[in-house]
Specification:
By secondary structure, the protein is α/β, with parallel strands linked by helices. It has three helices and eleven strands, in the order ββαβαββββαββββ. It has a five-stranded parallel β-sheet, sandwiched between helices. The structure holds inosinic acid and magnesium ion. Inosinic acid (IMP) binds next to β7, α3 and β10.
């Protein structure tokens, strides 16, 4: 795997595709055990969580549904702090076992907003699955139930995660190489 360059920034390989896929399969199997006899509804937060949500959904040997919402809060490499409304929720969550699928929890601001909005729809249960989690960046009380990888407070791209819309289609995850900066 080679370094990648976007917006004048250099990124180095960080988590390989086969490691990601193996971890996603483990989480899928764990969810299947935890939800045995239930029909959970996976809710994917677009755009970033799309690859993870779809791979996780396919890795969960259980009758389940998937749906997609959108809530954007991030631009460039720094959080704008502006969190928008949830868009695209079409099914009823009343009495459903919901698993919210995110790409990454950074400050946790997005997750807090999502959880409070979704709770208004009275799901029977509401859990969080996130591919990546930056515990050092967290400024809210958020406890994700399923975590792919805990990572340092650094900027990450690939496998859904973007830099201004680019790099989502990389199969591996890359980390900003601060030493490579001019
Ligand atoms: P939070 O609200 O600060 O937890 O940030 C959540 C959102 O910010 C995520 O859903 C991502 O879209 C974006 N984000 C946070 N950290 C990164 C990163 O390292 N790379 C790309 N996007 C990120
Ligand atoms: Mg996101």
């Amino acid at each position: 795997m080679n370094r990648k360059s976007y917006q004048g920034l250099t990124f180095r390989p960080y988590i390989e595709s086969n490691q990601i896929q193996a971890r996603v399969r483990e989480i899928g199997e764990q969810i299947a055990k935890d939800y045995e006899g239930k029909y959970p509804l996976f809710i994917c937060v677009l755009n970033g969580a799309a690859p993870f949500a779809v791979d996780l959904f396919r890795s969960t040997p259980l009758d389940a549904e998937i749906s997609f919402i959108r809530l954007k809060s991030y631009e460039g490499t720094g959080s704008t702090g502006k969190v928008k409304e949830v868009m695209g929720l079409t099914e009823s969550l009343e009495g459903r076992d919901v698993i919210l699928i995110e790409d990454i929890i950074d400050t946790g601001n997005t997750m807090v907003k999502l959880l409070s909005d979704l709770r208004l729809h009275n799901p029977a249960s509401l859990r969080i699955a996130t591919l990546l989690f930056k515990p050092e960046a967290l400024i809210n009380e958020v406890n994700p139930d399923y975590v792919g990888f805990e990572i340092p407070k650094k900027f990450i791209i690939g496998y859904g995660l973007d830099i201004d819309g680019f790099a989502r289609n990389l199969n591996d995850i890359y980390i900003l190489d601060e030493e490579a900066e001019a």
